[in-house]
Amino acid sequence: MAEEIKTNETQQTAVEQVKGAHVNLQTDYSLGIFGTSDNFKMAWQMAQALAESTVVPQTFQKNPANCLIAIEQANRLSMSPFMVMQNLYIIQGKPSWSSKFLIAMINGSKKFDAELQYDEKKDANGKPYSCLAWTTKNGRRIEGMTVTMDMAKDEGWLAKNGSKWKTLPALMLRYRAASFFASLNCPELTLGIYTREEIEDNDFNRFDNMPTETVKETVQKDIEQSANSVDFEFVDAEVKPIK
């Protein structure tokens, strides 16, 4: 009996030693932070540490879950989590890159022969009117889409409260031209995330906080405006049995 008690005490001591021992996590971030349980544990520890910092943007302070997402983005882009945090904004509940950061990613990606260039034109009054972002790859010109002030007006970007299109049109033309270039030629750099300016310009949440009846009226209006005005003529066809 005494020997059995001694054995149990020895086993308990061994368990306590294991609990107090330092465990080395085997991580391989080429698999992503969610690739293995050890990867996730290490990333979560990093997220908790970053969340305690007062240097990171307020969106990430005391919020390890947000920090974990930033670490995931940083791992996919092969860059510092802190750099991602400094350039990732939450607008209307959606993550977005700053346009400056997007341009820096394009220029630093080494995918092209040169940094982004801009073909800019002015209107008859000498004011900024259009911008096209382009560069070269293997000696071939690679272009985005031409952005104009008429486009900004038609899309409603100028009408937004506090819109920078009214005060800084040349800068906004460059930012939007760069985002169009990225969407067309290197979408893998953005990871499907819009720029901050795109989120602010576009009303992605126009149905949020809207009464149900108003939503129905809005949807019906969209249908009436977008539907074909020409009626389809259906012709009965002879259906033959399959042999």
Observed structural traits:
243 residues; alpha+beta; 2 domains; four-stranded antiparallel beta sheet; two-stranded antiparallel ribbon; 6 strands
Description:
The protein is of the alpha+beta class. The protein folds into 2 domains: 27-91, no CATH class; 101-206, no CATH class. The chain contains 10 helices and 6 strands; from the N terminus they run ααααββαββββααααα. It has helices spanning 2-20, 37-51, 64-77, 81-87, 99-108, 149-154, 164-167, 169-185, 196-201, 212-226; strands at residues 88-91, 94-97, 117-122, 128-137, 140-143, 147-148. A hairpin with a 2-residue loop joins strand 1 and strand 2 (94-97). Helix 2 (37-51) packs across helix 3 (64-77). The longest helix has 19 residues, at 2-20. The protein is globular and about 65 Å long. The N and C termini lie far apart (85 Å).
Tell me, briefly, the overall form.
Answer: globular
Summed up, the helix count is 10
Structural class: alpha+beta
On the 0-100 scale, what is the average pLDDT?
78
What Rg is obtained from the alpha carbons, in whole angstroms? 28 Å
Helix coverage percent: 40-55%
Tally of separate domains? 2
**Count of individual beta strands:** 6
Q: What fraction strand?
A: 5-15%
Oligomeric assembly: single chain
Largest sheet: 4 strands, antiparallel
Would you identify the regions where 5 or more consecutive residues have pLDDT less than 50? Answer: 13-22, 204-216, 225-243
How is the topology of this model organized?
Layout: H1 2-20, H2 37-51, H3 64-77, H4 81-87, E1 88-91, E2 94-97, H5 99-108, E3 117-122, E4 128-137, E5 140-143, E6 147-148, H6 149-154, H7 164-167, H8 169-185, H9 196-201, H10 212-226
Antiparallel strand pairs: 1-2, 3-4, 4-5, 4-6
Helix pairs in contact: 2-3, 3-4, 5-8
